[in-house]
Amino acid sequence: MNLSLELSSTEEMAPEEFKGGTAVACVILGLSFLVGAPGNLLVIWTILRHVKKRSHTVVLILHLAVADLLVLITLPLWIYSLANYWVFGEAWCKAIVFVINACMYSSVFLITLMSVERFLAVRYPFASAGWKQKKALNKVLLALWTAAFLFSIPIIPTQVVDKDSDEEHCLYRLYTSVTQELVCVLLETLVGYVIPLTILVVCYGCLCSRITQMTFKSKRKSTVLIASVVVVFAICWTPHHIGNILSLIILAMGGNFPDAATNLEDARTTMTFIAGAMAFISSTINPILYMFAARSFRSSLRDTGIQKLFRHISSTSPGEGNRELSFVSKRHSNQTNSSQCVSASKDQMDILVNMCENHPS
């Protein structure tokens, strides 16, 4: 999703609006970098160094941390350019905004995929056996990242460096026609927000009653953790896409209601910097959520809580769907494997889970 100002070449912000918005944005971006970059580095290092057997959920968390880190390491450039002006040329402006948008799309897709995986693991554990193969995950991730970069291509021709009093700013998107603007904004809003958020709401709406009934505490914790990531995503990205929706409304008005269109444009312009900065917060907050969830897992200085958190997630994924056998047995009580899993002791359950994975029917 593009975080630049979507203004035509003739639209300009008032100096006081520009300075006020950029000051707040610089503070938010600075805090996001100081907290988010080390946090995501810690997540990546912990998973690569200390989690040898990685579940699909942990692999998705790893890719999400990489996408967030790539976004956050560009923040010093944006802070400098907001406080002063853009000195890196239009080619770098297009390239950096393109990478940021691709990472933002991939973050949304990864969060959605994690939620779908969680939904299938709880509701349809045996039906998702094919997804548990590592090759299947690699193919999905390749398709996910490819789609993220493809959806970001419209940024390249529209992102421009605008000159304001002999100072350049990499903040603007220039549309050559109303149709181009409508297609770009609508694509961004639907693919980057409306469709993923709808999928997330459906998945967690169906899982809401199941979370409190989960018999495995570590599985319940990991499900709640991913749900928290989803909630943060919705909160951080909603203001940005409200701005997009206002843009669509202004386009639909055309010249029929000039006063209303002007008021809407002023409201959208005022919230642009803050909404853009809030979108970066979504790349910062995830490691904080992991740290918060890991507090109960900490046992020593050498074996930190976040290490144990990811190990517990891996120990309950992807076989975690099969571990939650109390639900499956109610629906398939006439099957020998399910009844064995329900009646088995906790020590025997790991063996029976492997049997269930190898013989899902």
Measured by DSSP, the beta-strand proportion falls in under 5%
Gross morphology is: globular
* Low-pLDDT ranges: 4-17, 298-303, 318-361
Oligomer: single chain
Describe the structure.
This protein has helices at 15-50, 56-72, 75-83, 89-123, 134-151, 155-158, 178-211, 217-253, 258-294, 305-315, 320-323, 325-331, 336-343, 346-358; strands spanning 159-164, 167-173. It has 361 residues and is mainly alpha-helical. A two-stranded antiparallel ribbon has the order 1-2. Strand 1 (159-164) and strand 2 (167-173) form a beta hairpin. Helix 1 (15-50) packs parallel to helix 9. 40% of the residues are buried.
What keywords describe this structure?
361 residues, two-stranded antiparallel sheet, single chain, 14 helices, 4% strand, mainly alpha
Task: Write the SSE topology.
Blueprint: H1 15-50, H2 56-72, H3 75-83, H4 89-123, H5 134-151, H6 155-158, E1 159-164, E2 167-173, H7 178-211, H8 217-253, H9 258-294, H10 305-315, H11 320-323, H12 325-331, H13 336-343, H14 346-358
Helix pairs in contact: 1-2, 1-3, 1-9, 2-4, 2-9, 4-5, 4-7, 4-8, 7-8, 8-9, 9-10, 12-13, 13-14
